[in-house]
Amino acid sequence: MKKKNIINLIRYHSEGNEAGFRSEAYEIAKEFDQVGDYQLAEYIMALLSNANTFVPQVSDLSSGFFEKVTVGNSPLPLPELIEQDVMGMVNAISRNLGINKFLFQGAPGTGKTETAKQVARILNRELYAVDFSAVIDSKLGQTQKNIVSLFREITEFAHPEKVIVLFDEIDSIALDRTNSNDLREMGRATSTLLKEFDRLDDRVVLLATTNLFDHFDKALVRRFDSIIDFNRYSQEDLAEIAEVLLNDFLNKFKCTGKNIRLFRKIVSLMSPIPYPGELKNIIRASVAFSNPSDEFDYLRRFYKAVYTEPMDIHVMQSQGFTVREIEILTGISKSQVSRELKED
Length: 344
Hints:
Blueprint: H1 3-15, H2 18-34, H3 38-50, E1 66-69, H4 80-94, E2 101-105, H5 112-123, E3 126-130, H6 132-135, H7 142-155, E4 163-167, H8 184-199, E5 205-210, H9 218-221, E6 226-229, H10 235-252, H11 260-268, H12 276-288, H13 297-306, H14 313-318, H15 323-330, H16 334-343
Parallel strand pairs: 2-5, 2-6, 3-4, 4-5
Antiparallel strand pairs: 1-3
Pfam family, one: AAA
Keywords: ATP-binding, Nucleotide-binding
Protein name: AAA family ATPase
């Protein structure tokens, strides 16, 4: 059993995701069965069966090369240009014309992996991510063999029209074979990957992501039916996305108050506004760690995360905050704020 199995079990339990918890337990049971610990595997399966809620997955991707990705329903705001490309991709897949290989390229935090989850949700397909730590092997020639085995399992999938395979950060194995600094072993792995791409069943949707598109193997680039650039965010796009993310988190924490005007002023202090991945983490932490008895404590925490200097009411006034907004952010009463500002 791998560390990720334990982490997934704890995460699914804390999220109340019963289906995900049982699916992970099922994978653990199969792993014990494969290594010869049949009694423990049977015991786990018995516990699951007695609960009368265990349902086998439609997938037969049972090796250690894959892990099932939970597809949630959180909002994924995208700029219009990227959204149009993604919906075009969804339409192409739905038409079953053999267009099935797509590459998402862009900086970290631009929403590539989250978009893959949303595509799976829209198409009602199961999403499986390739575990590159299981594919890449230090033994000479073993990585190529693992790639062949990986694609063989995909080809033998019982319901290829119901699955999406995600090669997240595919640059782990898709190196530029013309690069003199490249290891020959990984260059051969890339060549093997090219061959397997050409043999892939058209009914299987393959999504890949990369942060290193400029160093990507050009021959592999040509294997993709479409490449979507996730770097096309304007600062206006990111400001709007920040509000969508905030509203989603506030809906989950009913004790918090909403002050969009103040939130926008704080966002305007970010120069530049970070990509959605980082932005989501900052907003989520501000809301999650806020004091439940203080409805605007999350705004105070958000301000401190954005502006890391010590709070100064004079600086805050120069940043465009009103006396009331300074009161919210500092906890100092309006009368005292006004008095101190007037005195100075």
